[in-house]
Amino acid sequence: MEVATIGLDISKHVFHIHAVDGQGQVAGRQRLRRGEIVSFFSWLAPCLVGIEACATAHHWAREIRQFGHDVRLIPPAYVKPYVRRGSQE
Known about the structure:
Blueprint: E1 5-9, E2 14-20, E3 26-33, H1 37-43, E4 48-52, H2 57-65, E5 70-74, H3 76-79
């Protein structure tokens, strides 16, 4: 998978990944359980990863940075416009 940017939505048990290629086209979406996150990012080529800043975001940012990814924490106010509730996409 050729990925330029990943949006990572973290929660207690299930994390959602939204991957975009260099042209801004959706490269993939995936649901991962907490234990699968480290192995997912370990095989993925280094890219930009955006995570909404929250209590556990700093922990996950450190874990993901170990594999050469550029991790950016985004303030919740900037993430809010992108939230789509009840969507099946």
